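Thread amino acids onto this structure.
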């Protein structure tokens, strides 16, 4: 995403990850925000091992719920709007037609429940939010639709 932004003349993007920014540590989030003075922030940090989350639920909730809340709270303290990446796993997948934003979220996995709790935490912590429930992310790097399919 930060690479893509390089070709947009009006956008300056910073991608900051661990150890500089760890969503378990609110002070590191504050420091990262203070370093770059963003106009908008996006949280892409997550526990994404869907199957492993079934037996590793503490860590899934620590990152996907609590980490999301800490990030959104830090953004709210600076009056920053936030884009939060969520997932179609908040739905149970039993619907035979495309899901709508208004459909009830009913996750049937630990990963889905942790991400739904994260969405709720973000909504509560920061009024200026957009939650994106995507099915895939796309990149030429990492584990995603493009490199897998
Ligand atoms: N991949 C998809 O197709 C897909 C589909 C739907 C939704 N999503 C959502 O999109 C977002 C990004 O997914 P992704 O596939 O890019 O995930 P990913 O490849 O698993 O990357 C997760 C990122 O979170 C970082 N992270 C983990 N723990 C952290 C912590 N404590 N503090 C800060 N960063 C931490 C990881 O950093 P390290 O490299 O240091 O471990 C990694 O960069 C997630 O919210 C995911 O739920 C993804």
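Threaded sequence (149 positions):
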């Amino acid at each position: 995403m930060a690479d893509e932004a390089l070709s947009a003349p009006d956008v300056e993007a910073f991608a900051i990850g661990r150890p500089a920014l760890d969503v378990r540590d609110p002070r590191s989030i504050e420091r990262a925000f203070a370093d770059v003075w963003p106009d908008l922030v996006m949280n892409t940090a997550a526990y994404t091992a869907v199957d492993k989350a079934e037996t590793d639920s503490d860590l899934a909730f620590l990152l996907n719920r609590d980490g999301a809340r800490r990030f959104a709270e830090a953004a709210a303290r600076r009056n920053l709007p936030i884009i939060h990446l969520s997932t179609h796993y908040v739905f149970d997948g039993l619907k035979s037609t495309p899901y709508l934003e208004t459909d009830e979220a009913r996750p049937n996995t630990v990963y889905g429940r942790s991400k739904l709790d994260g969405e709720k935490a973000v909504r509560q912590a920061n009024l200026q939010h957009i939650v994106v429930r995507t099915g895939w992310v796309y990149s030429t790097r990492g584990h995603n639709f493009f490199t897998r399919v």
